[in-house]
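Limitations
The structure tokens in this dataset are predictions for the assembled complex, not deposited experimental models. Users should treat interface geometry with appropriate caution, especially where small molecules or nucleic acid strands are included. An illustrative entry is reproduced here so readers can see what is and is not provided.
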Amino acid sequence: MRMRSSRSRRAGAMTAVVSAVAMLGAACGSSSSASTRGVTSSTITIGATVPLTGPAAPGYSEIAPAVNAVFKWVNAHGGVYGRKIHYIYLDDAYNPSTTVTKVRQLVLQDKILAEVGGLGTPPQTAVQGYLNTQKVPQLFVESGCTCWSDAKYPYSFGWQPNYTVEGKILGQYIKQHFAGEKVGYLFQADDFGEGFVKGLDQEIPASQVVSRQSYDAATLAGPLSNQIAALKSAGAQVVAMATIPAATALALLPAASIGYFPQYVVSSVGADPPTVGPLLSSFSKGKAGSVLLNGMISNAYLPPEADTGNPWIQVTQKLLKQYDVGAPLDGNTEFGVALGYTFVQALQTAGKHLTTSSLMDAIEKHGADFITPGLVPLTYSTTDHYGYSGSEVVKTENGATAPVSPVYVTSNTGPITLYTGTPSQPPSNLASTA
Amino acid sequence: MAAARLPSRLRLPDQPMLRHLVLCAGALVLFYVLTVNLSSYHNYQVGLIALFAMVIAGLSVLTGINGQISLGHGAFMAVGAYTFALVQEHVTLPLALELLAAVAASAVLGLVVGIPATRLRGPYLAGMTLILALGLPQLADKYNSVFGGDEGLHPSQLVAPGAVDPNRWFAWITVLVAVIVVALLANLVRSHFGRAMRAVRDNEVAAMLAGIHVGRTKVLAFVVSAGCAGLAGAFLALSGGVVTTGDFPLSLSIYLVAAMVLGGAGSLVGPWWGAIAIVYLPQWSTSISSDFGLGSAVAANLALVIFGLVLIIVMMLAPTGVQGGVRWLARRLLAARFPRPPAAAGVTAVAGFPEPPAPATPDMRTEQERTHP
Amino acid sequence: MSHFVNLSLNGISSGMIYASVALGLVLVWRATRIINFAQGSMAMFSTYMAVTLLDRNLGYWEAFAVALAVGLALGAVVERTLIRPLQGKPELNPVIVTFGLFILLEGVAGAIFGVRSRGVPAAFSQSGLTIGHHRVSFSHFDLFVLGSVLALMVLMLVLFRATDVGLRMRASAFAPEMSRLVGVRVGRVLTLGWALASLAGSLAGLLVAPRSAFSPNYMDLILVYAFTAAVVGGLESPVGALVGGLLTGLVLSFVGGYLGSSLEPLGAAVILILVLSARPEGLFSRPAARQV
Amino acid sequence: MLEVDGLTVSYGPVRALRGVSFAARPSTITAVLGANGAGKTTLLRAMTGLVRPQEGSVRFDDHELTGLPVEEVVRLGVAHVPEGRGVIDQLTVEENLRLGALWRKDKSDRKRALAETYDLFPPLAERRRRLGAALSGGERQMLAIGRALVSRPRVLLLDEPSLGLAPLVTAQLMALLAELTLLASLTVILVEQNARSALSVATWAVVINLGQVVVSDTAAAVGTDTGLRHHYLGF
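Predicted assembly:
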């Protein structure tokens, strides 16, 4: 397999390691890592808290089972160095106090090696201090908060692009392609929305912004008609949105209702067509449906689900079909599979003698070389715990997204640069056995 | 309260204050033995139970003794928690004073809510407190520069002395405070003020005629109850070292009332049962449903199903709550051991557990004025 | 100005929905002196029935009718099996049972239908009407919401005021024991009250669904606002539910529109406290309700 | 024939009735007399099923009434006018009256009965749109009795109908009752503290004390027994 990326050498080596999964599986009987919490010679116990019930459950509850699908695949093929991954994901209903309790349960009772894929800024920041003092890695938090890369919390790692990075890349696109047009913002009044707006504001001239509307996720009970009316009366031609999928739908519906069709530019968080489309089916007896999404601009750091020719999408489909029965292929499950696979890469890189520090080392020193479905490499280093730091801009047509820009990488405050590398391919063993 | 109905054979001191002291000392010894035998995580949960017992006990007095309902105790907890965290952020005080500040702030809110509440009947009061439970925490979202927004405020956690497990230390402090709170409430309930609260609950007009200041009694009950909630909120902040609005969803307030009635309204032992239910029931039901090999998403929903069923079943089988059921059981066991003439037993069980004899209403008076929840 | 008009229209359309849920709360309150916290989740459940049938290509109005029937039956069953046995027990117990039912139904729906949110078709176009040259945020569907909730209100009023069944219902609400003494089968009347309340809830559920991200939780906040509406209007009065619903809808819309959405519930709380300070039993409380 | 046999009622530990037995002959007035708290009201409540007796039975013709729900007892033709507050305040006079006959199938007769009641109590006809709450004490009593009569009962249980009424009105009421027993072949059980006026129209009298029947005899016999009068009836 030829890799033209600047990291091709390492990636090649990684492929070899990956291929070793199945073979090494049974071979490693004993291990000296019995002293590491959550690790025995035959098992690795990890956990997470995610919302499985309550208002945040729609959509988000699909992620953890998709993460686990990867682990099930790994376990079915012998595990990582003979160790099967035991993934305990508990419901916290997006309530930080519950997260605090459940994470203690995971650490003290279940003795997890690490939390992998805990979801949400409020719940996960609530346990960030605890996990760090307990020296339990908080890996790949499902949130784009900038707080995961913080020297105070060396055990925390983000994964998805942070919200400011998303905002910057989409802001640049607006600046370049909608110069002079009036721009309105619609954002969730929390860390997500505010981080995204911070990114937008770095790129879009303040004079261009005519209205800033927000909504509160905790009181989202119906259409965002008021916000939409305000954006319309301000004459916003472009509406940049930091919205969760439900809010995207609840904004697009009343807008269509009053015949307001601005150019939508939506954060990847709330722009996944298979997730948002069905929410729009209520528009005029379901006829219009996802037509409302046509022309929507968003950003993506994973390949589009609709691109069934993409080998990562094919692998993801196969994994879901076999190990997460009944789950649809959408933004949530694709996200879960990619995240789960990232962790498997980390385990493999950490090697046979798995300890907390070997795991952390693997991510900090080699994370940038992990083979993942991401369009950009992970940027992990000893000083950077963000994860993906870039994306491409995509446009939705007929329920599918297609890129309309090259892939960009950036940081919170640095310049936006073109990414010239090539996306990695799934290792052959994954492609063939999944 | 709890001891009042037990047969005198237990030979507790008759003087209420003394009796409460003896009971509390017993409870503390029991908790000590419990905590040293439990794992760190279970100690943490004991602490959680104790902090929930504080707020539920306050609620039990408000509703069970004084007849006022609150679906907004989550908001009082939020005020306590945020006050605690803010005080800690801006000034350096001993822990006790920080806790007192939390109590004071929530008590003040209790006063503000309690005054309009005096004129409201049950469901109207329920409506008012419910919307407050939803609205008040949102203020912290609105003014997130003060209240820390999504990442919240981060009060420092308890520092355990020496080799004591921090969770065990947390359990000890919380249980100690909770037992003190419950003992104080028990004395309050036995006091003049307690009699006034009951009189107001039973009949406001009669209470007024008996010279009780009805409004003042109701407001004060609200203040006391809100103070307990604020203290519990501060301990919640201590327990996780973080305070965010998400900690105080509407469902929290509703769960608190449910737990209070589940334990037994008006009882001060009942709140501990209610707190155990809040802390353990979701966990037990999740593990039960995952034992059946169900996926987590289904298991999580089944946990809701089981929690809902438990609420329904307990209310139908034990109308006076778990504590009522326990008392009934204890009486039966004691009666079996020390048989007494049936006449003394007074009432006969009709279905499930006996109730105190319903106030006999030989005239038609009650029908026009049916009481309300 | 047009912002004001839009806020008003939005307030009216969501207010009508609060009114219909509030009407259910009022009916249950009048029948059994209970606040039914399961009102929203019962509506959620019957709406899921309709949605399931729609997915199997049943016609819209057939599914609509089935949901209403399911709602009617669910109300009756709940009253008979869960509420009736608690008669004469401490007054908070049935309320806690409705909490339990609320949690139970959301769990059952989550386990059966999944928690994924989705859209639900609306009976009529959700495109805003054009008045003059302006497209306002009020659609045919909003008109349908307005019309059907008003129709329900009128039907209920006619039922209460002009029929024997209504007379029985009112008598049982005010004086159950006396009603039994004149031969009213109060038990059946209470069951009917719950059934009708649940029917009103089902209607609300069907009307809310197309305007929401439909999932097992979608009625939770609606219920809270509807409870506010019912309390503002006075729990005894169906007309109060309507007025309270509209007032709540408008206040939420204006507060959200002018002060920010985070303050919406607090705005509702302020209105509620103001109203109750002036009239402790809501706007449409009856002066005849005498205290002993 | 209405028969009460060995009726025993307790409120918790308190015995309100102990083995009360008597029979009321059709188309007569039976007065139930006794001091305050003797158990008279409880007796009526137990007869219609408002309280459940621990022992004993109530039979009406071939029907066993004990154990039946109140509304079913009423639907057998047993009307009960409770003491004092039987009127539903929130309903109008007409609604209160209509309610009384609602269970009867014959709609045209319901209307007729309503008209007859208005004839019987003209003040009610004048106030038919008023709320029950707006009536005077006497009007309330009329309304309560009128509501019982529109159901064309065969048995009428009256609890202290004279309470709060002027002596003249009481006398008219008693006369009316006597008339109804004859015209409508109504059996009346009349609970009264005002023993003198009750005995004036009753054919049979039952005297209760502390939940037990002391005497059951003709009204004339009871009315002339001075010892009895002094002891239990206070006149």
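Some entries come with short summary sentences. For this one: The two ends of chain D are 31 Å apart (CA to CA).
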